[in-house]
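yo

u said u wanted the structure for the complex thing, so here. seqs first:
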Amino acid sequence: MTNMNTATTQSDSDELILSVQGVNKRFGGLQALSDVGLAIKPGEIYGLIGPNGAGKTTFFNVITGLYTPDSGEFKLGGNTYQPTAVHEVAKAGIARTFQNIRLFGEMTALENVMVGRHVRTKAGLFGAVFRPASIKREEAEIEDMAHELLEYVGISQHAHHTARNLSYGHQRRLEIARALATEPKLLALDEPAAGMNATEKVELRGLLDKIRADGRTILLIEHDVKLVMGLCNRLTVLDYGKVIAQGLPQDVQKDKAVVEAYLGTPAH
Amino acid sequence: MSTFKMNKTTSVVALVILTLAAPVLAQTLGGNYWVRILDFALLYIMLALGLNIVVGFAGLLDLGYIAFYAVGAYLMGLLSSPHLSTQFEFIAGLFPHGLHLGFWWILLIAGPVAALFGVLLGAPTLKLRGDYLAIVTLGFGEIIRIFMNNLDRPLNITNGPKGINAIDPVVFFGIDFSKPHDLLGIKLSPGVMYYYLIVALTLVVIFVSLRLQQSRIGRAWVAIREDETAAKAMGINTRNIKLMAFGMGAAFGGVSGVVFGAFQAFVSPESFVLWESIYVLAIVVLGGMGHIPGVILGGILLVGFQELLRELAVPVQKMIFGEVLIDAEVLRQLLFGLALVVVMLYRPAGLWPAPKREDRPVTRLRGHTSRLDGGV
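structre next:
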């Protein structure tokens, strides 16, 4: 239990993008998460790692509102939020991607990103049918921004291609573009490198670097320790639903509990 | 490019002329019967366009859609016939000559009322998908019909299985649609006048559908159809957006129902059986789910095909076999089923599905640098 340092202290919680404390989640007899907490500062890439079944995705689903936690305190950008409904969390400012890519398959790449603007725009039924000037402007802005985001993640040439037909790497990028379209305070990526080859991983790393350089904050759940160590500013390691280490990558890497969790206890 | 444009203009002009001339042609070639068939084909197209919002756009399989058609038709029947005033003293006191609210007013009311029914029936089904949703909506559709069938006791509201008759016709600037009129020397039969009325309403429905499709709401519907979890994660309030789809679809159904009531001058529960829901769904699925021109084609083909069979089944059999082997009605259903199977096997996306997005021209290419580089 080393390296449980600085981040979770109360004093600097105002500057935190995301502050989560004391999350418990039980599935029947299984305590999936016990007293998990983390704190993410603006402009950093925060890693959440752990062996298979450690509770990473459960934690992720809790903070994004998919699972209701048994307890826990949640603050986003200084404001308390309750992760009770997925769409409310998106509105509050956490945009997520999915481990097994979930795009709107029959829509074009552009339309996928345009859907991401839904939560920040307001055209209703009447606006849609009668299209007053304000709604026309809104539509044009949605489309412009979608084009820009596709360009930003580097797939603008596929704007009018059906999402289903994009290559795996491009689908990942599209998911990120769609998430960015919601203007999130926190971009939460669930194993974005899963299933990627070495080249695609390098490209993904470049993209995440760029997103961070533009001042955005990322929560990264990852299996690929190499990617996490090279990319993350700080990270949390989960094992059996508990935080076993928290801190800078180089410290966590040397942590005995972490090494044991990943490699097992040496035989006597 | 210019030839393409030319072709497009030509085809649009041809389509407009065909649409306008259709009832005159039908009347000349086949008489009033065929004009009525045209009217019904258009009514089914209107219904199918409404159902297309629920099934095609939002991906919610609704097997009780005809209930909203019934709501519209009964609204017309109750508010524009002597029925209620003959049954209830107080209404007779208020309206001694019977309730005769005009068609246009009822048309205005029917949209919102049917939409309300759509929302009420949609609300309990929000967490259901696919086959479960289909079963529950099927049940709701039947409930509405059974209500209409049985609300003649203890208070006679719907007149039960006997239905409501003597419904007022459409009156448009003093022109009574139930009687033939002469317009500048051209003789207009009721069927022809209703045809133009339904064409106009269908155009409104098409316009609204297209506008909705290319909007924030329409995109949200398709997003829900494609992946509801991802749609939620994008901040779409799936409950409200689904209810909007149910409401919008129901409103179109209600409007169609009002026209049906006025056109028939009679409504009874047997017009709203499960088969009708399935028929409308078949139009949507055969034509091309979510694709408005496809749905229109589906309506024309299904209704036209059925009627053609009804006409030709006997003479063709006599010509080939010398006698009638299969009853026309049986043959019609047999071929209808066969057509469904063949289309689903060879064109699972429908006869005229939405064009492949890749074929569409890129509408906008952006040259300037991204304004997002500074952060959103």
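The beta strands of chain B are 164-165, 171-172, 175-176, 181-183, 186-188, 266-267. The mean pLDDT of chain B is 87.
cya
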